[in-house]
């Protein structure tokens, strides 16, 4: 019996010792960032977990981290669901769980988890932004008809991502299978990346067809990672991402990580020479994902260098006096507490990038920030089908041909990350301004075409002295306003019927949109001048309202009154009702007057939410006047969200409550005053 007991004791001791050793090995692999191996060891350990809860909880959290780092959404969701049941878990784990729920298209559950995170970490606006965003996921699909998307023919079963234009084709990154012997490469190129057990990335070239992509350059590719690149100077220069590896030596940070760096090279014949480092590389942080401006003088890149707002931020450097200036963070207008990566500049200097910090469908989503006087503000999500619930990034866009490429690890792909080709369909609309009475076509009128759902006005082109054209995105939310000196303003909208015709006629609208304007009589000018305290001869007497009237001295808007609101509210306050009563009195005195009610918000919420809030404010003010006897057709409403701040309080800037109050307003402007007919 003693022998049996002794034998059992030895057996238990050996089992415990083996389990402890296995756990030590798992922790070792985890600390070395060998997440694939670590995950296998942790999974094996949890088959026979410890009787100590704190040990199991640590293993579960590490295992969830492994799957997060390897971007395994299914298993990451599974284990974060376990991790957050621990009442002492770090709130960041709730955020990770919310992210992977979204990646797995469980938006309702993700919304609730984001809300819990928002309560736990009030300083991080992502919780509030994402939870509100997932109240209406359909908005991300409203422009889906605009795009055609298909997998690129040169994808492999491994990862292919981040294409960049070069010599009529594209250069992209891939860890596809490689015949080292056939290419005459060293056996070091067969190394595996122990983070995920896959090959290291190299650069490849494809002409865009179905042929096998070519290994791009033996000079640029190394046994370690080569990442996203960008060509400039007529494709004779390249800036590209590479591991901290130069002249056969690998460099590591103090925490034993090989970071990413940027390198430059110039073309010499059929290959590349003069490989030099970007002067702001550092072994302690990553600098990667280059994007050169069209003129080659500004370099954009992603980095986690000191001074970031979160994980990875987008920075820029300007070439001045033969050297790169110091990196400048693009600020909170672009960067969040999450990650902003993979920047790209189109020919118009618009900035494209991927982010998991701005609200989106899940994972990394693609965003565009329009260039406005050299600044990038109000980035907006391009929506489906370019974006999905998984990671979508690495976009490039040929504006001349309305087509491009992007990368995604969405379901249904050939491998890990895949490259997709897309084209954008648009609807060409012809607009003509005419005299409302005589039907005479007006030459050289002033025309404003505004898309209410986007961040700016639509660019229109002069077809002739009398006709204009613009391209729509198959929405009906366009307000077209035309006028000319001596005329009252006329308006028109793009109807759903016209958009459907445009789709049916393969992108060209068969009907011309006419905007009728009425000539202003002398008596009418005198009455309006008296009302506004002006002279009848003043050239700016004709009034109009546009999104950018604050910045345009040639557009005169008469503000009768500003109506203010409480934060996040759209009900009419008592002080606001007194001001609206003044507007009511004016409208009752001048029954042939039309006014516009344009509402605005402060910046303390998401862009999409603020657009909707401002719409509700305009509707509320309009209804107040309608309830008191003003005809609905005399009241036109506009809404601009946070795009027109009267005090400089954008996202991330601490402002006083009175400053924010000034931005929460409805402005009332005279649109038209029609001379009443004389009694017979």
CATH superfamily grouping of the largest domain: TolB, C-terminal domain
CATH fold category name of the largest domain: Neuraminidase
**Tally of DSSP β-strands:** 38
What would you call the shape?
A: globular
Q: Into how many domains do the coordinates divide?
A: 4
Given as residue ranges, the uncertain stretches (5+ residues, pLDDT < 50) are 1-18, 536-562
Task: Describe this entry's structure for a reader.
Helices cover 25% and strands 29% of the residues. It is α+β, with helices and mostly antiparallel strands. It has 4 domains: 116 residues, Serine Threonine Protein Phosphatase 5, Tetratricopeptide repeat (Alpha Horseshoe), CATH 1.25.40; 197 residues, 6 Propeller (Neuraminidase), CATH 2.120.10.30; 94 residues, Immunoglobulin-like, CATH 2.60.40; 160 residues, OmpA-like domain (60s Ribosomal Protein L30, Chain: A, 2-Layer Sandwich), CATH 3.30.1330. Strands 14, 15, 16, 17 and 18 form a 5-stranded antiparallel beta sheet that branches. Helix 2 packs antiparallel against helix 3, helix 3 packs antiparallel against helix 4 and helix 4 packs antiparallel against helix 5. The longest helix has 30 residues. The chain starts with a helix and ends in a 7-residue tail after the last strand. The N terminus is likely disordered.
């Amino acid at each position: 019996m003693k022998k049996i007991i002794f034998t059992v004791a030895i057996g238990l001791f050996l089992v415990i010792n083996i389990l402890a050793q296995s756990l030590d090995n798992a922790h070792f692999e985890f600390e070395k960032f060998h997440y694939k191996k670590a995950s296998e060891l942790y999974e094996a350990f949890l088959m026979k977990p410890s009787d100590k809860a704190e040990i199991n909880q640590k293993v579960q959290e590490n295992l969830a981290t492994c799957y997060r780092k390897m971007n395994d959404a299914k298993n990451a969701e599974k284990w974060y669901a376990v991790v957050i049941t621990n009442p002492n878990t770090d709130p960041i784990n709730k955020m990770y769980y919310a992210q992977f729920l979204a990646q797995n298209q469980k938006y309702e559950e993700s919304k609730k988890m984001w809300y819990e995170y928002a309560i736990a970490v009030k300083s991080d606006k992502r919780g509030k932004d994402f939870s509100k965003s997932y109240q209406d996921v359909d908005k991300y699909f409203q422009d889906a008809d605009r795009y055609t998307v298909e997998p690129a023919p040169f994808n492999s079963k491994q990862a292919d991502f981040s294409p960049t234009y070069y010599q009529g084709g594209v250069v992209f990154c891939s860890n596809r299978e490689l015949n080292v012997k056939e290419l005459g490469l060293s056996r070091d190129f067969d190394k595996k990346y122990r983070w995920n057990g896959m090959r290291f990335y190299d650069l490849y070239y494809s002409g865009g067809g179905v042929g096998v992509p070519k290994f791009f350059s033996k000079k640029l590719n190394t046994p370690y990672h080569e990442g996203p690149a960008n060509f400039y100077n007529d494709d004779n220069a390249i800036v590209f991402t590479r591991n901290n590896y130069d002249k056969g030596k690998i460099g590591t940070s103090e925490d034993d990580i090989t970071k990413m760096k940027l390198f430059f090279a110039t073309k010499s014949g059929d290959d590349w020479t003069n490989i030099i480092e970007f002067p702001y590389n550092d072994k302690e942080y990553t600098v990667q994902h280059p994007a050169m401006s069209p003129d080659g003088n500004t370099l954009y890149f992603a980095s986690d260098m000191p001074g970031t707002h979160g994980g990875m931020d987008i920075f820029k450097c300007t070439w001045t006096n033969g050297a790169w200036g110091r990196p400048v963070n693009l600020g909170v207008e672009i960067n969040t507490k999450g990650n902003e990566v993979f920047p790209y500049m189109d020919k118009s200097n618009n900035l494209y990038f991927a982010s998991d910090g701005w609200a989106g469908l899940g994972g990394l989503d693609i965003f565009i920030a329009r260039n406005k006087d050299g600044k990038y503000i109000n980035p907006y999500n391009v929506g489906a089908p370019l974006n999905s619930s998984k990671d979508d990034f690495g976009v490039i866009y040929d504006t001349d041909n309305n087509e491009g490429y992007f990368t995604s690890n969405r379901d249904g792909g050939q491998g890990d990350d895949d490259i997709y080709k897309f084209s954008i369909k648009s609807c060409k609309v012809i607009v003509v301004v005419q005299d409302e009475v005589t039907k005479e076509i007006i030459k050289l009128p002033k025309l404003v075409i505004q898309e209410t759902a986007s961040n700016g006005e639509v660019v229109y082109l002069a077809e002739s002295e009398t006709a204009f054209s613009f391209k729509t995105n198959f929405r009906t939310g366009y307000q077209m306003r035309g006028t000319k000196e001596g005329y009252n303003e006329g308006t028109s909208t793009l109807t759903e019927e016209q958009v459907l015709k445009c789709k049916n006629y393969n992108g060209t609208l068969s009907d011309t949109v006419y905007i009728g304007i009425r000539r202003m009589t002398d008596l009418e000018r005198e009455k309006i001048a008296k009302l506004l305290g002006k002279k009848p001869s003043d050239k700016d007497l004709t009034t109009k309202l546009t999104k950018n009237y604050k910045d345009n001295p040639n557009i005169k808007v008469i503000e009768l009154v500003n109506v203010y609101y409480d934060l996040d509210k759209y009900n009419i306050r008592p002080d606001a009702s007194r001001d609206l009563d003044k507007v009511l009195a004016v409208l009752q005195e001048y029954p042939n007057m039309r006014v516009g009610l344009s509402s605005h918000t402060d910046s303390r919420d998401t862009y999409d939410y603020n657009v909707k809030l401002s719409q509700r404010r305009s509707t509320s003010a309009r209804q107040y006047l309608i309830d008191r006897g003003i005809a609905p057709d005399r009241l036109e409403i506009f809404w601009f969200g946070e795009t027109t701040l009267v005090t400089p309080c954008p996202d991330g800037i601490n402002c006083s409550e009175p400053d924010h109050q000034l931005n929460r307003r409805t402005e009332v402007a005279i649109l038209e005053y029609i001379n009443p007919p004389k009694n017979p």
